[in-house]
Amino acid sequence: MYWTVKYAFMTKTEISRFPPPLYPHHPTLASFYNIFGFDYKAANGIIFKASGQASQIVLGLRNSLIVAIVVTAITTCVVVPLSYIFARLDFRFKAALLTAILLSVSLPPVSTLIPFYTLYVQLGLTGTLTGLIIVTLTITIPIVAWLLIGFFRNLPPVELLARIDGFSRLYVLARIIVPMARSGIIVASVIAFLFSWNEYVYAQILVTGSDAVTLPAAMTGFLFQVPEPAQLAASLLLSLVPPFIIAFFVQKHIAEMHLA
User: Which of 130, 134, 189, 203 has the most crowded CB, counting CB atoms within 10 A?
Assistant: First the structure.
């Protein structure tokens, strides 16, 4: 993290010095301007030209936000009732289905990359946000479901009292269980957002070079042809802004879940 912050505020000339300086002697915001497609004129008159990767960074930032928001919304809507059913109700094949969820959580994304790529080529979903959203859901839903199942199990058993009063299971879930589990649901949504925001493996193969490129995949462009370490560091810092903002506002709920 130290090297990333340091490089983001240094020029390419200063980065190439040996031994490397411990801190930027002449801090500059040039890299941040360049990655958004703007030239930057320093106080000494030197002009730092806009990055050739700027259009990809801006496009990747927009697409990453779209994917993260959509995946978070869908994951939350699917996982809340799913986790409640597994945590509070008994039914046939429950243990087998829980095992399937656990196995899907343990599978690394790279192990399913080739099957997904083959399927997406046949369906025409490569290079599309729809395809990336679908494949990201296969990561977030099992992980968030496994988290919330344990959280729902620890809630007080209030369903029986509510059922005696004549309330339906859907009413109990929507008006009693969900408010009680608010902190857990918020933290689970944050986890879904972070997984989808940082997703790289599928994005690199399925959408790189298309209009659906995401920020993690777009940043790899700074490593090829003419490497730009300062602009890469600035992009990395940019990618950390949304997670930091979200973590700041939901830290109370994280503490309530004893996950901090």
Answer: 203
| 144 touches 234 (CB < 8 A) | no
The Cα–Cα gap between 27 and 6 comes to 9
Q: Can you give the pLDDT of all 260 residues of the chain as single tens digits? A: 788 888 888 887 787 888 877 878 888 888 888 888 888 888 777 888 877 788 888 999 999 999 999 999 999 999 999 998 888 888 888 888 888 888 887 888 888 888 999 999 999 999 999 999 999 999 999 999 988 988 888 888 777 777 777 778 788 888 888 888 888 898 889 999 999 999 988 999 999 888 899 999 888 887 776 677 888 888 888 899 888 888 888 777 666 655 43
Q: Which two tokens stand for residue 1?
A: 């993290």
> How many domains does the chain fold into?
1
Domain extent, residue 174, equals: 55-220+240-256
> ∠ CA(33), CA(38), CA(41), 5° rounding?
75
CA distance 135 to 71: 10
Q: What is the CATH number of the domain that holds 210?
A: 1.10.3720.10
